[in-house]
Design a protein that fits this description.
Helix 7 crosses helix 11. The strands form 2 sheets. Strands 3-4-2-1-5 form a 5-stranded mixed beta sheet, sandwiched between helices. It has a two-stranded antiparallel ribbon with strand order 6-7. It has 262 residues and is of the alpha+beta class. The protein has 2 domains: 144 residues, Beta Polymerase, domain 2 (2-Layer Sandwich); 105 residues. The chain is built from 12 helices and 7 strands.
């Protein structure tokens, strides 16, 4: 949960962003560990937002050179930044995992107009399972090789390997975007009681501890991770036969512009 005080402060900063940059916020959500469901008590708030510029901003010879992100330094544990609508939809077209997770976040600070609902409606048509598998496989391998091969490992890094590995399993089993909440992903290993127990114990520590620190490897989790990493080396994701989604996204862009600016 996010306290009312934090929600109000995020909204205050969004209003300042609108005033400073002459934009309108369409959607603002929580991302990162709080949205995933395994935040520590002192985890940052990772607020992410989609905004739309005025029509004249897009009618520019130098459009591609214009800055299409709004970023602020972390202040009081709040990390707030956003993407322009056109940038966001172009990344949606490529099944960008950040955008896909943002529109699925259950912690919503605010939304305006039809953007959020339309993005969720388009998700099954736009999303590429193939791209998702490649992304999560790469994320799992990078974190595994970087943090989990030493005798002493940073315990929190298990979640940065487990979440993408379970997401791949979800994509393989259901053929749809993996949910953002870590707890929902656990159904893909529901028959492995020892692994589930080890993960549950680790979750309890993670949610209660400001910093987990180093520990000897947790062998039940370690063996699962290594087995999955090895399995995925030989996996060739299925080719996606998507219809051309550019017209859908372009129409959404035009519709949001009309809705926002008239």
């Amino acid at each position: 949960m996010v306290s009312l005080a934090v929600q109000n402060e995020v909204r205050n900063r969004l209003r300042r962003a609108e005033d400073e940059h002459g934009v309108k916020v369409l959607l603002a959500v929580e991302s990162g560990s709080r949205a995933w469901g395994f935040a520590s008590p002192n985890s940052d708030y990772d607020a992410r937002f989609i905004y739309v510029n005025t029509p004249d901003w897009y009618l520019s010879v130098g459009l591609e050179e214009q800055r299409d992100v709004v970023e602020y330094p972390i202040v009081d544990e709040m990390d707030i930044n956003g993407w322009d609508l056109r940038k966001a939809l172009r990344l949606f077209w490529k099944s960008n995992p950040g955008f896909v997770e943002w529109i699925q976040s259950t912690i919503i600070y605010e939304h305006s107009g039809s953007f959020h609902e339309r993005a969720k409606e388009l998700l099954p048509h736009v999303y590429s399972v193939e791209s998702g598998i490649y992304h999560y496989r790469s994320m799992a391998k990078t974190n595994y090789r970087g943090y989990l091969q030493a005798p002493q490992v940073p315990l929190k890094k298990y979640f940065y390997v487990l979440r993408p590995l379970l997401s791949v399993r979800w994509l393989e089993q259901f053929g749809s975007p993996a949910p953002i909440e870590f707890d929902k992903l656990l159904c893909v290993i529901e028959g492995d009681t020892d692994l589930l127990r080890s993960i549950d114990d680790l979750l309890t520590i993670k949610r209660a501890s400001p910093e987990m620190g180093l520990s000897p490897q947790i062998m039940t989790i370690q063996k699962y991770v290594e087995r999955e990493i090895n399995r995925l080396e030989a996996v060739k994701p299925p080719r996606n036969e998507r219809k051309d989604v550019e017209p859908l996204l372009s129409e959404m862009f035009r519709s949001v512009m009309r809705e926002t600016w008239g």
